[in-house]
Amino acid sequence: MAEAQNIPAGSTTAGSIAVAAESTVATRMSAPPSFDVADFPVPHGREEEWRFTPLERLRGLHDGTAVATDGSVTVEVNAPDGVTVETVGRDDARIGKAGTPVDRIAAQAYSSFEKASVVSVAKETVLTEPIRIDVRGEGGTAYAHQVIELGAFAEAVVVIDHTGDAVLASNVDYLIGDGAKLTVVSVQDWDDKAVHVAQHNALVGRDASFKSIVVTFGGDLVRLHPRVQYAGPGGEAELFGLYFTDRGQHQEHRLLVDHNAPNCKSNAAYKGALQGQDAHAVWIGDVLIRVMAEGTDTYEMNRNLVLTDGARVDSVPNLEIETGEIAGAGHASATGRFDDEQLFYLMSRGIPQAEARRLVVRGFFAELVQQIGLPDVEERLLTKIETELEATL
Fold this sequence. Notes:
The chain has helices at residues 104-112, 340-348, 353-369, 375-390, and strands spanning 2-6, 73-78, 83-88, 116-121, 131-150, 155-176, 181-188, 195-204, 209-216, 221-230, 236-245, 250-259, 265-274, 280-289, 297-306, 312-321, 328-337. With 393 residues, it is mostly beta strands. The chain has a 17-stranded mixed sheet that branches. Mean pLDDT is 89; it is low at 1-27. It holds the Pfam family SUFBD_core. Belongs to the iron-sulfur cluster assembly SufBD family. Residues 138-364 form the SUF system FeS cluster assembly SufBD core domain.
């Protein structure tokens, strides 16, 4: 089945700099979560959650001056049999169930949409083909809300593909029933001038599993906020990310895994490559282990490969642990330049320099690309990496 949806107005320095710190500051936002935009002050860039973001490039999403325009974004859902696709109003009980907005833009997006798209997979349904959601920017500004819901013991793969040009603020909710398995691949392949700010909320049921693969290439500014919490014990979450930040681009990924139930697991691994003057990547990884979350097993990792001078990376992993009764918790962060030893090794085997550099970068990303599990998407992303590298080699 396929459904197309229009989101109408009022709706839907040279070298590298790396920062790595252990802190609980980023876990505590300057204002508590709320669905009301009035509960969040207009940011000025000095707040912890905004200090890396160039506010002047948000096109008014942060201060309420961005006005939605008709037909600025279209959403088309292509789903196999066994999937229900609905367009619902704000009063639908599933909207906002997975999480509450944690900053002003997320609250603005929640307050501004009129219709939301809900994709549901019935309990015990195991899909053999992916659900594909194409989000196409047609210019202008839009606010949107998307819900993906899996019933108990259902299994599904969802690909959300963002292309075109738009200024988009959105919230995406993932509701994963008990024993269900959901894999989501979110691709940000925007045109050069696009701005995309989104909060992704996952509520993982008892003994359920959630895998998120976030891929970011395009856009002038992309700021994504994946968040996970658990609805019962035994849940597992894997958060993978791949980004390629080019000249002048700002790409920011801010993760929070809230271990609020016992005997749950999480693993986060993000990798990025940067090239060009003023390319700026930000990765914030927060893990909160609450008092009741005994038996938690968690790890988070961020790796960055700087290909040219002029690029900047800020990488901040955080762990906040409120109980000593855990299975394990750790984090790692590293940023480095291109490995000349690897390049020399390949060239000594007769491989030309340009091809050797491509092989090294492909190898850097290979582990995460393989997590996708969809050959057509994997090939597309590898081709995109090759295209990006051509600007440097």
